[in-house]
Each structure stands twice: as structure tokens, then as C-alpha cells.
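Weekly sync, protein design subgroup
Attendees: M.S., D.O., the rotation student, P.L. (late)

Item 1: inverse folding check
M.S. brought a backbone from last month's batch and wanted to see whether the design step gives back something sensible before we order anything. D.O. pointed out we never logged the input encoding, so this time it goes straight into the notes. C-alpha cells as presented (343 positions):
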């Protein structure tokens, strides 16, 4: 059975019979959402006419200018289609092949990206650690710290926490797959959360938060721009019809779509967490700061949560992860809460 989602959500959902209500509300990931109508409209507008390729187009020029305004300084930008490519290329520009890159044990670059940073850098070592200060002296050539904001466990780093990372005199990379959620939650400016706190390169996420498929490498160290341009091209991530990536990100930054979407996603997580606090057999295990809710559930509910795809064994076999997105509706949250059996 196919049903149209509310017009405001602008996407199609597949609905199941009522007994499968828990499956219908999809809190598996912010990657399961479609994209904002503004992005589709921008792509349709960009489909007309001929422009130069490989990023020498007016869309990319305007996006660069917009980023310079947003970050309150000169930056170089490199649109890519995936966060993995963005992270790997950004990190490669911050470390020599013999350097060590430090990240948290839960970091996407460590757990999910299959050695992309190591590969693109020509062999750097990625060391996951919760104790940066102790790990750094053990490395032969400490090169870079990589942090995610908002983190994989939904924690928002404020400017002071980011600045602490840069106190080690290493280069700093931020995986900003959920950067919009972090800015929306912290209220800090993009500049304060990045270069003013010592960040060298940010991978600014678009895909999870309303774009069709684009992430933006924002480079604050302009002296690395030429090298990163070669890496970007050589890796096959300098898309010839760049206008379609840049047009998405330009629309994303227009009229604060990125912040509106992130604020909505964060608000839906707060609503979900608020409701779950009243459900017997469900315990919120981490403070909800952005758009991710981690819950420990009673044995009677585990199959339901597991079948819906919410397993998150990193925090324990009985812990599940629920993610809200720009397309999550209040109705979905409320229906989900109502559908959890009380006994
Ligand atoms: C924190 C984080 N960083 C990076 C990525 C990588 O994005 P992609 O799947 O586009 O390579 C993801 C994807 O889920 C992510 O959650």
C-alpha cells in the first residue's frame, strides 16, 4: 500500500498495516529521509543552460562567497557526494602518510569508513582513543585530531570543547555530517565552532539534513587548497557537473534551510525523548542534545525495536538508537509512542 506523506514533508512513504506501525515510523537514520523541496527546485533550475565544468561555474562561485559570509572569513570549498570522501580527503590534506590521526572509538572514520582516511592519505594510522592526552606522546608522528560534531552518540561539542581539541598543536578535522544539528543545538556561530576554535577543515554535511546528496569540505587553511584540489580531482570526487552539487548546497544555505531543518530534527528528537520518558520499560540512556535518542528497553520490547532496525550494540545489547530527521513529523513521533505496547 502506498500513501502520500503530508504535503509539507514532500516525500513518499510506504505504509504497512497497523500491526506494523513501529516499522512505518522510520527512526533508523537521518539518511533514510528524502530531500527538501527547495533542493529539488534548485536542481531543476540548475538543469538549464551551459556552464563551465569541474567547479568553475557560477553556482560554485556563489556558494564559495556564501560560505565566506557564513564563516566570516576566506575559505576554500570542495563539494563531494559522500561524507566518507569528504572526511578521507580532508584528513589526507592534514597528515603525511606516516602521520597518526586520533579520533574517538565511536568515530565514523574509524568504525564505518573501511580505512578510507588511511587509504586516501597514503597510509596514515588512525588511532581511536578516549584519552587524547595520553595517546599523543605514544605516536611517532602525531599529525591530526578528528572529531565529529554533533558526535555519533548525539553529543554537541560547544566552541570550548572544540578549542580543547586544538590545544594539542595538531591539525584538527571536524566530521560535520550533523554540523547543522550542532549549530542549531548550541546556538554557536559556524565560525566559533570551527576556525576560531582552531579547526583546519570541516566536512559540512548536507545529505542527512535535507540535501539529495552533497557534503562540503570547507578548508580554513588556504595554503593547503592547491594540494587538496589535486587530491579531490585525483580521487575522482571532483564532479564534472559540479553545478548540481553546488546548487544543492547553495539552496541549503539560503533562507537558513539548513538551520530550519536541523532545528526541526532536533525538536522531533526532544519530543520523542519526552514521550519515551513516560513509557514503562524504556529508559533514555544519554542526554538528548541533537537528533539522536538512545534507549535501553525491557526484554519484552527488544524484538520490536530490533525488527524496526534500531539496534545499536555499541552501547549494549539492550540499547537502541532512534534518529529523527528534517522530514520527521510530530504525528509520526506521536504514533510511534502510542504504538509501543504498555505491557
Ligand atoms: C558521523 C558520520 N560521518 C560521516 C558519514 C559518512 O557519510 P556517507 O555515508 O555519505 O559516506 C556518516 C554517515 O552516516 C556519519 O554518520
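Designed sequence read out in the meeting:
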Amino acid at each position: 500500500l502506498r500513501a502520500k506523506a503530508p504535503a509539507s514533508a514532500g516525500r513518499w512513504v510506504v505504509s504497512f498495516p497497523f500491526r506494523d506501525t513501529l516499522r512505518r515510523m522510520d527512526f533508523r537514520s537521518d539518511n533514510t529521509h528524502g530531500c527538501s523541496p527547495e533542493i529539488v527546485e534548485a536542481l531543476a533550475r540548475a538543469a538549464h543552460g551551459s556552464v563551465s565544468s569541474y567547479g568553475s561555474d557560477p553556482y560554485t562561485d556563489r556558494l564559495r562567497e556564501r560560505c565566506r559570509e557564513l564563516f566570516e572569513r576566506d575559505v576554500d570549498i570542495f563539494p563531494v557526494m559522500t561524507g566518507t570522501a569528504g572526511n578521507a580527503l580532508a584528513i589526507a590534506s592534514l597528515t603525511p602518510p606516516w602521520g597518526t590521526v586520533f579520533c574517538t572509538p565511536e568515530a565514523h572514520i574509524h568504525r564505518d569508513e573501511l580505512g578510507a582516511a588511511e587509504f586516501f592519505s597514503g597510509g596514515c594510522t588512525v588511532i581511536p582513543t578516549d584519552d587524547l592526552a595520553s595517546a599523543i606522546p605514544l605516536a611517532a608522528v602525531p599529525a591530526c585530531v578528528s572529531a565529529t560534531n554533533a558526535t555519533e552518540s548525539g553529543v554537541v561539542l560547544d566552541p570550548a570543547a572544540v578549542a580543547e581539541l586544538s590545544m594539542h598543536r595538531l591539525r584538527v578535522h571536524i566530521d560535520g555530517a550533523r554540523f547543522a544539528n550542532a549549530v542549531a543545538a548550541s546556538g554557536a556561530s559556524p565560525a566559533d565552532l570551527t576556525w576560531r576554535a582552531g579547526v583546519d577543515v570541516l566536512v559540512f554535511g548536507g545529505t542527512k539534513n535535507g540535501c539529495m546528496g552533497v557534503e562540503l569540505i570547507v578548508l580554513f587553511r588556504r595554503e593547503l587548497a592547491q594540494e587538496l584540489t589535486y587530491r579531490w580531482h585525483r580521487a575522482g570526487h571532483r564532479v564534472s557537473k559540479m553545478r548540481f552539487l553546488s546548487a544543492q548546497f547553495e539552496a541549503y544555505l539560503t533562507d537558513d534551510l539548513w538551520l530550519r531543518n536541523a532545528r526541526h530534527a532536533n525538536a522531533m528528537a526532544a519530543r520523542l525523548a519526552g514521550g519515551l520518558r513516560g513509557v514503562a520499560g524504556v529508559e533514555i540512556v544519554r542526554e538528548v542534545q541533537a537528533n539522536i535518542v538512545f534507549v535501553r528497553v525491557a526484554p519484552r520490547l527488544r524484538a520490536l525495536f530490533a525488527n524496526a532496525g534500531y539496534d545499536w550494540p555499541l552501547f549494549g545489547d539492550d540499547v537502541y538508537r532512534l534518529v529523527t530527521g528534517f522530514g520527521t513529523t510530530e504525528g509520526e513521533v506521536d504514533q510511534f509512542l502510542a504504538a509501543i505496547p504498555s505491557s
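Discussion: The longest strand covers residues 142-148. Residues 1-19 have pLDDT under 50 and may be disordered.
Action: P.L. to compare against the previous round before Friday.
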